[in-house]
């Protein structure tokens, strides 16, 4: 275990990559603490402290993804939430708009075009979200029950400056993520999410320790570790469908003749269903907040049934959404017919099943059966913290609870992915060393 | 002074957004976001890309300086 670390750090190339990634993460955390110009930092801090003990915020999810920077109204307060939302929208549009579907089929260049669209959309969304947050802050709704003026000088020029700076911060973060992907290790965007979630753990843990005492804290920690272990277990689980390749001669070379397997992960969709579901669930709350009037019947309906994470309507709705999106996302990303065609083209077949249409049917049958436990597991892990709200003091809603739910899923997934990439880099180096 | 810094912030922010958008799109969107497939970017960066990087760094530096400057102004005046 430690030897792997040592060899990772002694490889010059890998060391440079790891250091670059760490440097970017440090810069991100630094930027997340710089307050936006025109925002009164002391007032924000006072309001923030009032919020800590108070009721849950609408922005728990947004705040989770920005690592607590949102409620500080910092320069990077939008985090990479605009990018995530934009990617989700583009992903969904691939089903709806034929041109996007074409682009997706085009391969590398089409994918690059789609990514470019995602980036444009990110900027647009960043402007929207920044405007929304600044408007809420000026009206005093961002921190409910706090009478301090968060933005003392509410002239138009000042507000516009804040919005523009926040947008620039979001685009800067997007670029940082891309730089990490390109020159560092792992996927930049997901690493940045990872950082912002991990950054909240100490403060949340300390909060539990202070308010509830040592026994509850220990129980929560043990529980969190158990959840992490189970998440790793299911993330790694896969069904291996055997595939036999026929021998064939091309020129004087012999190809194929091997028996391999087609791995189908139990949780093929990753954490994406959870993110989709929670993003959709927080939309009505956000709309209700923006509409302002809290006394219409539907605002009260939303407050009691959808916002409150411990109400059974919320839990059921969330669960149903996660299961639906798990199936939906798997059906987008994995096309059994395409896979069967590919296998047929290269002379492969699943023993006992004819190539072509029967193979596709078999694959989709196995996939739909294997996705069910995956989807249920995702739903249960995501909903679990909602039952323990009493333990954690009920602050900030279930999503913020760092030892369960969305946060753990994302952290474990990103961590596993990054470690795998480091490992593959290491094996690459070792082989090179052998050959030389 | 405050007005100057604000105008500076507006200009650099807009420039920063434009410069970032000018960069070549990296990464494959959401599919590679959370434990997606391995992608390897073999293509090195071109000279144009390097110059773009340099310009972006310059603009970022200006942006950060003006943000910190306006923050200092606020805390000094109050």
UniProtKB/TrEMBL annotation, chain A:
> By what name is this protein known?
Protein translocase subunit SecY
Designated gene of the protein:
secY
What taxonomic lineage is listed for the species of origin?
Bacteria, Bacillati, Actinomycetota, Actinomycetes, Pseudonocardiales
Q: Which UniProt keywords apply?
A: Cell membrane, Membrane, Protein transport, Translocation, Transmembrane, Transmembrane helix, Transport
Q: Which SUPFAM superfamilies match?
A: Preprotein translocase SecY subunit
| Role played | The central subunit of the protein translocation channel SecYEG. Consists of two halves formed by TMs 1-5 and 6-10. These two domains form a lateral gate at the front which open onto the bilayer between TMs 2 and 7, and are clamped together by SecE at the back. The channel is closed by both a pore ring composed of hydrophobic SecY resides and a short helix (helix 2A) on the extracellular side of the membrane which forms a plug. The plug probably moves laterally to allow the channel to open. The ring and the pore may move independently.
Q: Where in the cell is it found?
A: Cell membrane; Membrane
Q: Where are the transmembrane segments?
A: 69-96, 117-136, 156-177, 184-202, 214-234, 255-276, 315-335, 370-389, 401-419
Membrane topology annotation: Multi-pass membrane protein
The record, for PROSITE patterns, names: SECY_1, SECY_2
Q: Does the keyword Transmembrane apply?
A: yes
Entry keyword Cell membrane? yes
Question: What Gene Ontology cellular component terms go with this record?
Answer: plasma membrane
Main localization category: membrane
User: Of which family is this protein a member?
Assistant: Belongs to the SecY/SEC61-alpha family.
Q: What organism is this sequence from? A: Halosaccharopolyspora lacisalsi
Quaternary structure annotation from Swiss-Prot or TrEMBL = Component of the Sec protein translocase complex. Heterotrimer consisting of SecY, SecE and SecG subunits. The heterotrimers can form oligomers, although 1 heterotrimer is thought to be able to translocate proteins. Interacts with the ribosome. Interacts with SecDF, and other proteins may be involved. Interacts with SecA.
Which processes are annotated in GO (biological process)?
Answer: intracellular protein transmembrane transport; protein targeting; protein transport by the Sec complex
From TrEMBL, chain B:
| InterPro entries documented for this protein | SecG
Which Gene Ontology molecular function entries are recorded, alphabetically? Answer: protein-transporting ATPase activity
The way this protein sits in the membrane is described as: Multi-pass membrane protein
Q: Does the keyword Transcription apply?
A: no
- The answer to whether keyword Membrane applies is yes
Which UniProt keywords are given for this protein, alphabetically ordered?
Answer: Cell membrane, Membrane, Protein transport, Translocation, Transmembrane, Transmembrane helix, Transport
Transmembrane segments annotated in the record for this chain = 55-76
The entry's cellular-component GO terms read: plasma membrane
User: Which domain of life, per UniProt?
Assistant: Bacteria
Role played: Involved in protein export. Participates in an early event of protein translocation.
Q: What is this protein called?
A: Protein-export membrane protein SecG
Q: What is the lineage of its organism?
A: Bacteria, Bacillati, Actinomycetota, Actinomycetes, Pseudonocardiales
């Amino acid at each position: 275990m430690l030897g792997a670390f040592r060899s990772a750090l002694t490889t010059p190339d890998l060391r440079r990559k790891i250091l670059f990634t760490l440097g970017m993460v440090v810069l991100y955390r630094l930027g997340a603490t710089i307050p936006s110009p025109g925002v009164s930092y002391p007032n924000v801090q006072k309001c923030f402290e009032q919020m800590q003990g108070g009721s849950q915020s609408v922005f728990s999810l947004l705040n989770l993804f920005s690592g607590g920077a949102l409620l500080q109204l910092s320069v990077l307060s939008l985090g990479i939430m605009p990018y995530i939302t934009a990617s989700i929208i583009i992903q969904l549009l691939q089903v709806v708009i034929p041109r996007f579907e074409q682009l997706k089929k085009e391969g590398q260049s089409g994918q690059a075009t789609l990514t470019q669209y995602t980036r444009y959309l990110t900027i647009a969304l960043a402007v929207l979200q920044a405007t929304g947050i600044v408007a809420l802050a000026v009206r005093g709704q961002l921190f409910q029950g706090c009478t301090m003026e968060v933005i003392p000088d509410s002239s138009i020029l000042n507000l516009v400056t804040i919005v523009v700076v926040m947008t620039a911060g979001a685009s800067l973060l997007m670029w940082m993520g891309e730089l990490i992907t390109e020159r560092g290790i792992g996927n930049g965007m997901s690493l940045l999410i990872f950082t912002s979630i991990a950054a909240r753990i100490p403060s949340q843990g300390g909060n539990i320790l202070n308010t509830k005492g040592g026994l509850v804290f220990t129980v929560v920690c043990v529980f969190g570790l158990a959840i992490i272990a189970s998440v790793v277990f299911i993330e790694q689980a896969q069904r291996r469908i055997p595939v036999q390749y026929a021998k064939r001669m091309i020129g004087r070379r012999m190809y194929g003749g091997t028996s391999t397997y087609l791995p189908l992960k139990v949780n093929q969709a990753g954490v994406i269903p959870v993110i989709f579901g929670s993003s959709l669930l927080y939309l009505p709350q956000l709309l209700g907040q923006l509409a302002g009037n809290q006394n219409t019947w539907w605002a009260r309906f939303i407050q009691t049934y959808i916002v409150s994470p411990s109400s059974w309507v919320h839990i059921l709705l969330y669960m149903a959404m996660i299961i639906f999106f798990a199936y939906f996302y798997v059906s987008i990303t994995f096309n059994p017919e395409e896979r069967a065609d590919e296998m047929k083209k290269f002379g492969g077949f699943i023993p006992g099943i004819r190539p072509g249409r029967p193979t596709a049917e078999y694959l989709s049958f196995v996939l739909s059966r294997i996705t069910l436990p995956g989807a249920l597991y995702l739903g249960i892990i995501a909903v679990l913290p909602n039952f323990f709200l009493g333990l954690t003091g009920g602050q900030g809603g279930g999503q913020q609870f760092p030892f369960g739910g969305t946060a753990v899923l994302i952290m474990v997934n990103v961590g596993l992915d990054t470690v795998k990439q480091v490992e593959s880099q290491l094996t690459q180096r070792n082989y090179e060393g052998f050959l030389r | 002074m405050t007005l100057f810094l604000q105008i500076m912030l507006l200009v650099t922010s807009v420039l920063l957004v434009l410069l970032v958008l000018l960069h070549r799109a990296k990464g494959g969107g959401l599919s590679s976001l959370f434990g997606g497939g391995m992608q390897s970017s073999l293509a090195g960066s071109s000279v144009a890309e390097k110059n773009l990087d340099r310009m972006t760094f310059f603009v970022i530096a200006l942006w950060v300086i003006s943000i910190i400057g306006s923050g200092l102004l606020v805390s000094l005046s109050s």
